[in-house]
Write the structure tokens for this entry.
Amino acid sequence: MTHDSRSADRKAVAKGAGLAFLGRLGALIEPVSVILFAKLYGAPTLGLFLLLWGYVQLAAVGADFAMTTALQRFVPSTTDEARIHQTLKLALAVSISLSLVLAGTLTWLAPRATAFINADPGASGDLVTIVRLYAWGIPLWCFISVSTAAVRARRAFGPEVKVRIFYEQGLRLAAGILFFALGFQIYGLFVAHLVAMVVTGYLSLRLLGKHYSLRQMVGAPVDAQALGLMFHFGSPMAVSNLIKRLQSSLPLFVLNLMLPGAAGAAAVAVYAVARKVVSVLQVIRQSFEYVMAPLASASRGQADESALGNMYAFATRLICSIFLPAATAVVLVRDEIVTVIGPEFTAAGTLIAILVLGRAVEAATGPSAALVEMLGRYRLPLLNGLLGLGVSALLLIWLTPRLGAPGAAIATAVGINVTALASLLEIWRFYGHQPYDRRLIRPLAAAAGCSVMIAVVYWLTPGGDAVRFASTAVALALSLVLLLRFGFSDGDASAFGKLGRWLRD
């Protein structure tokens, strides 16, 4: 593999991850939304909304039948446009059909389903109507997920930015505030999110039309062999994706079931607030996974194992070095964040610290999970997910009655890392790739130094919570600049293009 090829691969990973990071910045808007919604609607109503959103996401992942993953696998691995459009048509047809069936079934069974949901007594009378209304978020979310995954499969990582930030997340925030001002204190969050998803769905369709021929997609033939291949890939992957989503949402479901009435909904809100704050860090790893999936599939299709190994190691170096100072900042300012939300959420500070530690271990494994999904061993992600979910479930049953929400956070963190570490070992064992070498030492040492600097700035800053939060944010921004300036080799820094050259000259 030539030096120019390695440089091009690093640039592709860095540029794609940067654009994907912007596309995932909805996760940065979401914690802000949660804070504002908590102050406006209160913990019980917010908890009910986040609980039902967890159920909608879980149902949408099941209805998706791994079509989002299938698009990352099959589209980049061929140049046959007829086959590509056939794959897209099948992905949309399968996911939308299943999601409509699920939404209709949930609408019918809403009176029975609500018996398993603990909510504020003031909202109990509206619960059936809320569930029936919000059930139709399942097909909307399925369409958005599959459409944006199809665009990403074309290696177009940037177009998701406007859709994810300014519409799906931004519009929900604006609409939620508007509906509260209009007096919709029970239905406001649910209607606001449905409105945001409708607009996002329309924009996703337009985005799809820019990267595919919708006419060719509609006219693409559907043969049994292609459908069978999609189902062969999707069957184990769908269960794997469902397990991954369940692993994330299971603590919400368990906490709500364990605590009656408003207490169950409030516990969900406290845990969800902590999880949303930590999701800011999760964006770092997810951005690289989004990029590595189609790139890995393309490299595998070209039998370019050296390129794959180089990208794997480079992505891991960036994830580890960026995550460490960012995680340090979040842990330090967690109490300042919780104070802004209100006294109902005081316990979230402890949960944030636990979940950050769990995500730190996961980040150290790099994009291993994405590589396992893309490199052909369909059942490995399923086994990894089952193993992690099983560990989480056992720990939830054991720790939650004893420790409450902190026990749920510990159970989640351990389960997530069981899955991540299994993926790391499988990539090493079955494909001979492991992302750690001496090139990791320099960026990791620089990241550790930046973390120390952030901690010193936080501890030495006089004044109130707002001042400490602001000074820590500035220190984090400075640390990322210093990391790029001193933490990477010339080869790694060149992947950042003009920004890298400007900071190093």
In short: DSSP finds 23 helices and no strands in the chain.
